[in-house]
């Protein structure tokens, strides 16, 4: 084969890998978040134009974060797990990594799993037009919801790389069909009924003329939820044959995703009365009746995919953290089945708690379980209160997840001076890391602030003690307390039964540990011989 032909084949292989990685980035990052969080962002900012600006700003910062994580993820390019927990262990320390793992188990996975579970049940109720007293609706939500959590965790416990992966692959392609339809339909259907022009819908209101500076610092939690998980694509360099194409593919992919989200937001605000994909699709498929049925069926499939994704993260993530010796286990390992049962307990408790609060607490026309079935807009009130606190906590969970990503970024900056962790250093890392880290820390703080001070409190429409902000603070403190209790219990067990190899640093394969032991024995023997 001539030199020219070899060069051509190599270039084609590089191009193919670049396109493959680009597709993987888009497929991974463009997730189910846009389906459930665009309306939340609209309500929190009170202005669709501000919401679009925030989509763009966060998207561009995420592009920078992906670039930074190319260096961070290179720490596990040879061996070890490419997870937030393991990276935290390497760059920060094992104790911080243990806190991270606890947060994912207690708050992140149950909350994110919970929002899709609640919406799954809601769309079923919409199809069959279920209207029952609050107590009966609560019981059905609880029974169907817990059943879905258990079923999907069982799938991921016993078949994480077969049945679950098939669902994930199907979901990667399926979720784009409604998105692409909605993207074009929003621009075509743009008119006075769209959120950009209608000033509000039902009990929600917004305006395109209100540019109060305080509105620009709201809504980050929902956007972070939509971008959540993107850092794992940086770990693609571990399996890439042509390492030089990885940065280009990741950056081009993230830029595409950021632009796509902005275009989706513009389209939805122009064509949907409340900024949701659901209401765009109802118009596309012929309004109420058949259109509503098709839309609800599509939404059920999207929720089905969302529940599976977070069940997979819960099971595989915990097993991976145990393997990295971040989570204590007496047998030095937690298999998928044991991880699934642990996650199941946490998810059911959290789901039940949030659902009970949503149904039981008074808010406006909603009088808890005593609410009359005959009041106006009863069904929508039920749906809204069922998802109220699980929706808030799912966005908060994303903020918590990104707080550890922020910690990792600053630890990676410090690593440039300490060289504690061996990494492949990339050009322009420090300026990009500093800017991305500072902005991300700001987004996380403001994301939590949004829920501490809800929009109705900010606008003076209600007192803070009567708002969801007070309940959110209690939930936040309860979550942090639960993490702290489990953390100290685990530390006590670590102290009584410590791990020996790879506990504070990078996990090493058994053969590396064995070679080190042999080397140490040889050194001892040599030293004894020399003494003689």
Automatic annotation (TrEMBL):
Which lineage ranks, top first, belong to the organism behind this chain?
Bacteria, Bacillati, Mycoplasmatota, Mollicutes, Entomoplasmatales
Q: Tell me what topology the record assigns in the membrane.
A: Multi-pass membrane protein
Pfam families linked to this entry: AA_permease_2 (PF13520)
Q: Which organism is the protein's source?
A: Mesoplasma syrphidae
Query: What GO terms are given for molecular function?
Result: L-amino acid transmembrane transporter activity
Q: Mostly located where?
A: membrane
Q: Which GO terms describe its cellular component?
A: membrane
Annotated membrane-spanning segments are 15-36, 48-70, 104-125, 137-155, 167-190, 215-233, 245-270, 290-318, 339-362, 389-411, 432-455, 467-489
Q: What is this protein called?
A: APC family permease
Protein's cellular compartments: Membrane
Look up keyword tRNA-binding and say if it applies. Answer: no
Q: Which Gene3D superfamilies match?
A: Amino acid/polyamine transporter I (1.20.1740.10)
Cite the entry's keywords alphabetically.
Membrane, Transmembrane, Transmembrane helix
């Amino acid at each position: 084969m001539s030199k020219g032909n070899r060069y051509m084949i190599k270039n084609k292989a590089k191009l193919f890998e670049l396109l493959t990685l680009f597709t993987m980035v888009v497929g991974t990052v463009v997730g189910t978040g846009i389906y459930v969080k665009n309306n939340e962002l609209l309500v929190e900012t009170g202005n669709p134009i501000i919401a679009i600006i925030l989509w763009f700003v966060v998207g561009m910062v995420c592009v920078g974060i992906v670039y930074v994580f190319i260096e961070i993820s290179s720490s596990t390019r040879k061996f070890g797990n490419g997870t937030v927990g393991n990276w935290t262990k390497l760059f920060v320390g094992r104790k911080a990594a243990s806190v991270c793992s606890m947060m994912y188990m207690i708050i992140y996975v149950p909350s994110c799993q919970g929002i899709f579970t609640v919406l799954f049940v809601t769309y079923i109720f919409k199809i069959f037009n279920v209207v029952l007293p609050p107590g009966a609706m609560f019981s059905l939500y609880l029974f169907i919801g817990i059943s879905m959590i258990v079923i999907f965790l069982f799938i991921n416990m016993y078949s994480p790389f077969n049945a679950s992966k098939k669902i994930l692959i199907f979901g990667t392609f399926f979720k784009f069909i409604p998105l692409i339809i909605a993207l074009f339909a929003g621009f075509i259907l743009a008119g006075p009924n769209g959120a950009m022009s209608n000033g509000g819908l039902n009990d929600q209101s917004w305006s395109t003329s209100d540019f109060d500076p305080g509105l620009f610092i709201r809504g980050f939690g929902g956007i972070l939820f939509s971008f959540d998980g993107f850092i794992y694509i940086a770990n693609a360099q571990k399996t890439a044959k042509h390492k030089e194409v990885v940065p280009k593919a990741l950056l081009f992919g993230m830029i595409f995703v950021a632009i796509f989200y902005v275009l989706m937001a513009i389209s939805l605000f122009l064509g949907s009365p409340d900024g949701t994909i659901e209401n765009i699709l109802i118009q596309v498929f012929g309004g109420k009746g058949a259109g509503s049925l098709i839309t609800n069926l599509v939404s059920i499939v999207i929720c089905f995919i969302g529940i599976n994704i977070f069940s997979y993260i819960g099971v595989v993530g915990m097993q991976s953290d145990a393997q990295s010796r971040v989570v204590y286990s007496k047998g030095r390992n937690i298999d998928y089945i044991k991880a699934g049962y642990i996650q199941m307990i946490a998810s059911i408790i959290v789901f039940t708690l949030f659902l009970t609060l949503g149904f039981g607490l008074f808010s406006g026309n909603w009088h808890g379980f005593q609410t009359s079935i005959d009041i106006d807009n009863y069904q929508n009130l039920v749906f809204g209160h069922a998802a109220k606190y699980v929706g808030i906590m799912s966005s908060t969970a994303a903020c918590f997840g990104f707080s550890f990503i922020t910690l990792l970024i600053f630890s990676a900056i410090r690593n440039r001076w300490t060289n504690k962790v061996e990494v492949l250093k990339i050009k322009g890392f420090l300026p990009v890391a500093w800017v991305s880290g500072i902005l991300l820390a700001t987004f996380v703080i403001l994301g939590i602030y949004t829920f501490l001070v809800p929009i109705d409190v900010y606008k003076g429409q209600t007192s803070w003690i009567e708002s969801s902000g007070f309940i959110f603070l209690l939930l936040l403190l309860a979550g942090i307390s639960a993490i702290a209790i489990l953390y100290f219990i685990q530390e006590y067990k670590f102290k009584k039964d410590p791990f020996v190899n790879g506990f504070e640093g990078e996990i090493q394969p058994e053969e590396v540990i064995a070679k080190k032991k042999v080397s140490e024995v040889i050194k001892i023997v040599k030293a004894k011989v020399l003494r003689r």
